[in-house]
Amino acid sequence: MSMTRAPEKPPLVHPLWLRLTHWLNALAMLIMVTSGWRIYNASPLFNFSFINELTLGGWLGGALQWHFAGMWLFGLNGLCYLLINLVSGRFKRKFWPLSPRQFFTDLSAALRGRLQHADLRHYNMVQRVAYLFVMADSILMALSGLVLWKSVQFPLLRELLGGYDAARYIHFFAMSALVGFVVIHLVMVALVPRTLLAMLRGR
Question: What is the model's pTM?
Protein backbone atom coordinates (compact mmCIF):
# COMPACT_ATOMS: atom_id res chain seq x y z
CA MET A 1 0.00 0.00 0.00
CA SER A 2 1.63 3.22 -1.12
CA MET A 3 1.41 6.36 0.95
CA THR A 4 0.98 9.70 -0.77
CA ARG A 5 3.33 12.38 0.45
CA ALA A 6 1.86 15.72 1.37
CA PRO A 7 3.02 18.45 -1.00
CA GLU A 8 5.92 20.42 0.38
CA LYS A 9 5.35 24.02 1.28
CA PRO A 10 7.17 26.53 -0.89
CA PRO A 11 10.25 27.98 0.81
CA LEU A 12 9.84 31.00 3.07
CA VAL A 13 10.70 34.21 1.24
CA HIS A 14 10.03 36.86 3.89
CA PRO A 15 9.97 36.15 7.66
CA LEU A 16 7.14 37.59 9.75
CA TRP A 17 9.23 40.40 11.25
CA LEU A 18 10.16 41.62 7.77
CA ARG A 19 6.57 41.63 6.59
CA LEU A 20 5.45 43.54 9.69
CA THR A 21 8.14 46.20 9.36
CA HIS A 22 7.46 46.50 5.62
CA TRP A 23 3.75 47.24 6.04
CA LEU A 24 4.27 49.48 9.07
CA ASN A 25 6.83 51.41 7.04
CA ALA A 26 4.37 51.73 4.17
CA LEU A 27 1.78 53.18 6.57
CA ALA A 28 4.32 55.56 8.12
CA MET A 29 5.46 56.78 4.71
CA LEU A 30 1.88 57.38 3.59
CA ILE A 31 1.20 59.46 6.71
CA MET A 32 4.45 61.41 6.51
CA VAL A 33 4.36 62.15 2.80
CA THR A 34 0.74 63.29 2.65
CA SER A 35 0.99 65.36 5.83
CA GLY A 36 4.34 66.70 4.64
CA TRP A 37 2.73 67.93 1.45
CA ARG A 38 0.25 69.94 3.52
CA ILE A 39 3.13 71.40 5.58
CA TYR A 40 4.97 72.23 2.36
CA ASN A 41 1.89 74.08 1.03
CA ALA A 42 2.04 76.43 4.04
CA SER A 43 5.49 77.62 2.94
CA PRO A 44 6.38 76.32 -0.55
CA LEU A 45 9.98 75.99 -1.67
CA PHE A 46 9.08 76.15 -5.35
CA ASN A 47 6.46 77.74 -7.54
CA PHE A 48 3.88 74.98 -7.06
CA SER A 49 1.71 73.43 -4.36
CA PHE A 50 0.32 69.97 -3.83
CA ILE A 51 -3.37 69.33 -4.36
CA ASN A 52 -5.05 69.72 -0.98
CA GLU A 53 -7.22 66.65 -1.56
CA LEU A 54 -4.04 64.53 -1.66
CA THR A 55 -2.76 65.89 1.64
CA LEU A 56 -3.41 64.87 5.25
CA GLY A 57 -4.22 67.06 8.23
CA GLY A 58 -6.73 69.59 6.93
CA TRP A 59 -4.63 72.54 8.07
CA LEU A 60 -1.04 73.24 9.15
CA GLY A 61 -1.52 72.33 12.81
CA GLY A 62 -3.30 69.09 11.98
CA ALA A 63 -0.69 68.18 9.38
CA LEU A 64 2.11 68.74 11.90
CA GLN A 65 0.42 66.42 14.40
CA TRP A 66 0.03 63.70 11.78
CA HIS A 67 3.63 64.23 10.64
CA PHE A 68 5.01 63.84 14.16
CA ALA A 69 2.94 60.69 14.69
CA GLY A 70 4.21 59.25 11.42
CA MET A 71 7.74 60.33 12.33
CA TRP A 72 7.81 58.17 15.48
CA LEU A 73 6.39 55.17 13.64
CA PHE A 74 8.81 55.65 10.73
CA GLY A 75 11.84 56.12 13.00
CA LEU A 76 11.21 53.31 15.50
CA ASN A 77 10.09 50.84 12.85
CA GLY A 78 13.08 51.70 10.65
CA LEU A 79 15.45 51.27 13.58
CA CYS A 80 13.99 47.82 14.33
CA TYR A 81 14.35 46.85 10.66
CA LEU A 82 17.99 47.90 10.50
CA LEU A 83 18.94 46.28 13.83
CA ILE A 84 17.31 42.94 13.02
CA ASN A 85 18.95 42.94 9.58
CA LEU A 86 22.38 43.59 11.08
CA VAL A 87 22.12 41.26 14.09
CA SER A 88 20.67 38.36 12.09
CA GLY A 89 23.25 38.69 9.35
CA ARG A 90 20.50 39.20 6.76
CA PHE A 91 21.98 42.52 5.67
CA LYS A 92 25.20 40.86 4.53
CA ARG A 93 23.43 37.89 2.95
CA LYS A 94 20.88 39.91 1.00
CA PHE A 95 22.70 43.10 0.02
CA TRP A 96 26.35 42.12 -0.27
CA PRO A 97 28.53 41.99 -2.27
CA LEU A 98 27.85 44.74 -4.79
CA SER A 99 29.09 44.56 -8.37
CA PRO A 100 28.92 47.64 -10.63
CA ARG A 101 29.26 45.47 -13.73
CA GLN A 102 26.44 43.16 -12.64
CA PHE A 103 24.33 46.19 -11.72
CA PHE A 104 24.46 47.58 -15.25
CA THR A 105 23.86 44.11 -16.70
CA ASP A 106 20.76 43.64 -14.52
CA LEU A 107 19.61 47.21 -15.19
CA SER A 108 19.83 46.65 -18.93
CA ALA A 109 17.85 43.43 -18.58
CA ALA A 110 15.23 45.20 -16.43
CA LEU A 111 14.77 48.00 -18.96
CA ARG A 112 14.21 45.40 -21.67
CA GLY A 113 11.77 43.44 -19.49
CA ARG A 114 14.08 40.43 -19.34
CA LEU A 115 15.18 40.48 -15.71
CA GLN A 116 14.44 37.11 -14.12
CA HIS A 117 12.55 36.73 -10.81
CA ALA A 118 12.59 32.94 -10.55
CA ASP A 119 13.67 32.85 -6.87
CA LEU A 120 12.25 35.71 -4.81
CA ARG A 121 14.59 34.86 -1.93
CA HIS A 122 17.53 36.32 -3.84
CA TYR A 123 17.84 39.98 -4.79
CA ASN A 124 19.32 40.89 -8.14
CA MET A 125 21.87 43.70 -8.25
CA VAL A 126 19.31 46.36 -9.16
CA GLN A 127 17.21 45.41 -6.15
CA ARG A 128 20.23 45.48 -3.85
CA VAL A 129 21.27 48.95 -4.98
CA ALA A 130 17.67 50.24 -4.87
CA TYR A 131 17.05 48.97 -1.33
CA LEU A 132 20.39 50.26 -0.05
CA PHE A 133 19.64 53.61 -1.67
CA VAL A 134 16.24 53.87 -0.02
CA MET A 135 17.77 53.00 3.37
CA ALA A 136 20.35 55.77 2.99
CA ASP A 137 17.71 58.17 1.68
CA SER A 138 15.43 57.42 4.63
CA ILE A 139 18.26 58.15 7.07
CA LEU A 140 18.97 61.44 5.30
CA MET A 141 15.29 62.32 5.39
CA ALA A 142 15.14 61.57 9.12
CA LEU A 143 18.28 63.62 9.90
CA SER A 144 17.10 66.61 7.88
CA GLY A 145 13.71 66.27 9.54
CA LEU A 146 15.35 66.52 12.96
CA VAL A 147 16.90 69.83 11.93
CA LEU A 148 13.53 71.16 10.80
CA TRP A 149 11.85 69.94 14.00
CA LYS A 150 14.48 70.82 16.61
CA SER A 151 16.93 73.15 14.88
CA VAL A 152 18.23 74.71 18.12
CA GLN A 153 18.73 71.33 19.81
CA PHE A 154 20.80 69.94 16.91
CA PRO A 155 23.18 72.77 15.97
CA LEU A 156 25.99 70.51 14.72
CA LEU A 157 23.64 68.50 12.53
CA ARG A 158 22.13 71.75 11.23
CA GLU A 159 25.57 73.05 10.25
CA LEU A 160 26.56 69.73 8.64
CA LEU A 161 23.48 69.96 6.43
CA GLY A 162 24.28 73.53 5.43
CA GLY A 163 21.83 75.35 7.71
CA TYR A 164 18.09 75.32 8.26
CA ASP A 165 17.12 76.47 4.76
CA ALA A 166 19.40 73.90 3.11
CA ALA A 167 17.91 71.20 5.36
CA ARG A 168 14.46 72.09 3.99
CA TYR A 169 15.63 71.44 0.43
CA ILE A 170 17.42 68.24 1.46
CA HIS A 171 14.28 67.03 3.22
CA PHE A 172 12.14 67.81 0.18
CA PHE A 173 14.43 66.07 -2.31
CA ALA A 174 14.88 63.07 -0.01
CA MET A 175 11.09 62.80 0.20
CA SER A 176 10.83 63.09 -3.60
CA ALA A 177 13.38 60.32 -4.07
CA LEU A 178 11.44 58.11 -1.66
CA VAL A 179 8.18 58.75 -3.52
CA GLY A 180 9.95 57.96 -6.80
CA PHE A 181 11.18 54.67 -5.34
CA VAL A 182 7.65 53.79 -4.21
CA VAL A 183 6.25 54.47 -7.69
CA ILE A 184 8.87 52.23 -9.34
CA HIS A 185 8.36 49.62 -6.62
CA LEU A 186 4.61 49.52 -7.28
CA VAL A 187 5.19 49.19 -11.03
CA MET A 188 7.51 46.24 -10.44
CA VAL A 189 4.96 44.62 -8.11
CA ALA A 190 2.33 45.00 -10.84
CA LEU A 191 4.68 43.30 -13.32
CA VAL A 192 5.58 40.49 -10.87
CA PRO A 193 2.49 39.94 -8.67
CA ARG A 194 4.17 37.02 -6.86
CA THR A 195 6.23 39.57 -4.94
CA LEU A 196 3.06 41.00 -3.35
CA LEU A 197 1.83 37.55 -2.35
CA ALA A 198 5.21 36.79 -0.80
CA MET A 199 5.07 40.00 1.22
CA LEU A 200 1.55 39.16 2.43
CA ARG A 201 1.91 35.49 3.31
CA GLY A 202 5.68 35.06 3.43
CA ARG A 203 5.87 32.51 0.60
Answer: 0.88
